[in-house]
Amino acid sequence: MNQDAAQIQISENFRFYGDMRFKQLTLFMAAMTAAGTGVTQSPASRWWIALAAFIIAAVMWVVEVRATLNAIAAHDAIPEVFPRQKKRFMSWLNSSWAVLSLHVVCYWSWWWCLRIWSPGCVAFYVGIPFGALLIVFSAVNYWQHKEFWLGRKGDA
Question: Structure pTM?
Fold first, then answer.
């Protein structure tokens, strides 16, 4: 594979991750909307709906972090396509952090619903350490790419 073909393939990979993240966000929002609607329409089953939404939020949280890391890898593979940006004010404030925050808020919101609707349930108690594990997972993976987030890659 020559250099041009390799660069085209890497650019396609980057575009793929952008499209994939948009589709993931669409599915996540559809699932959270359906869960919210289900809870209001079927109070007798709201605990089960909250449990399903809680699990979906956790899974989609992991998928979001992995998709972000893959997009960063694709971005870093073709530096000539993405010229170095000048330093920006609050460069950490971007769509990736906003989407991650959405996942975090949904996870803990559904966890709170589980607590209210069934205080003694196992999912409530398992959700605390699992949520902490997800926070550590996100922090460690994002910290490894702090130069990308802060726009400092290549700075002296």
Answer: 0.80
